[in-house]
Amino acid sequence: MGGDGIVSDERIRVLYVDDDQGLLDLTKTYLERRPNLRVETASCATTALDRYENESFDCIVSDYQMPNVDGLEFLNRIRTNLNSTTPFIIFTGNSREEVAIEALNLGATRYLQKGGDPQTQFGILADAIEQTVAYDRTAKQARKYETRLKQAQKIGHFGILDWKLASDEVHCSDELRKMFDLPKEGSLTIRDIEAIVHPEDRDRIEENLEVAIANETECELEYRVVHSDGNVLWIQTQAGLVRNQGGDVSHFVGIAFDITSAKDQQPSY
Predict the structure, then answer these.
(1) What pLDDT does 116 receive?
(2) How many domains in the chain?
(3) Residue 52 CA: distances (Å) to CA of 83, 97, 148, 216, 222
(4) pTM for the whole thing?
(5) Taking the chain, what is the end-to-end CA distance rounded to the nearest angstrom?
(6) Is 3 a domain residue?
(7) Nearest Cα to Cα of residue 213 among 188, 237, 239
């Protein structure tokens, strides 16, 4: 199964690995005082790897100094052999800086030291687990929505454009780049977009955009874009202004639809 899947929206399932059985029990007791944490334990990395491959976990917490397979090798196997991005926290009494650096280079999410008042140290650990899992879940949701949005754009023949007014930089979705025959990668400005608009439509589009920005209104535009091979597409764009947190107009955002098929089906007189 592997552990990358989100177990639930609220509860967090933790795999805690340490060769000190007393500390395993103590840590589990403290962490599970928080109602959203469920802790499963393993006394060695080998057992933990076996459990991880067959069960789902939201976070791994591991000691560093353990016999046979230490915490860093365990981390490396999780990241490299299993290709997993599950949040991984090194929780150890080792304070050597080089160990912390290597752990972070191998992909550890956090590096925390044991010691001190139990309530304080386990509180810090619990906070770290909740924070890293919350971030991980948010990132996964964002990637999921981004994937679905790309699929929707491809199916619906539309693309998204975000024009940063202060710098004239333009961010275009992959589907819009394809629709407008723009390079697949690299930075773009509004001048690059204007250049592919049909010469007979260009002045009208520029005037309409200037009016919409000046009056802070939405606009709907129909125009043609010309590809490098001479192919011409009809585009309909619905766009409007976006304000920043200070309330100032900062972006002009639009959705562009390929309406060529609909235009081709219109009767000519």
Answers:
(1) 80
(2) 2
(3) 12, 28, 28, 54, 54
(4) 0.60
(5) 63
(6) no
(7) 239
Strands 88-92 and 59-62: what pairing? parallel
Per residue of the chain (269 residues), give pLDDT as tens: 555 544 445 799 999 999 999 999 999 999 999 999 999 999 999 999 999 999 999 999 999 999 999 999 999 999 999 999 999 999 988 778 888 999 999 999 999 988 888 889 999 999 999 999 999 988 888 777 777 777 777 777 789 999 999 999 999 999 999 999 999 999 999 999 999 999 999 999 999 989 988 888 888 999 999 999 999 999 999 999 988 888 888 899 999 999 998 877 766 54
Listed in sequence order, the residues at least 6 apart from 188 whose beta carbon sits closer than 8 Å to its beta carbon are 169, 170, 171, 172, 182
**Rounded to an integer, what distance in angstroms lies between the CA atom of residue 134 and that of residue 6?**
11
Assess whether 140 and 178 both reside in one domain. no
Domain assignment of residue 7, yes or no: no
Rounded to whole angstroms, how far apart are CA atoms 184 and 172?
10
Scanning 55-117, the segments in alpha helix (DSSP H) are 71-76, 97-106
Query: DSSP label at 268?
Result: P
d(CA 41, CA 177): 49
Instruction: Verify that 58 and 183 share a domain, yes or no.
Output: no
Beta strands across the sheet bearing 158-164: 188-189, 169-172, 158-164, 249-258, 232-243, 219-226
The parent domain of residue 102 ranges over 12-147
How many CB atoms are located within 10 Å of the residue 116 CB? 9
| Structural domain includes residue 1 | no
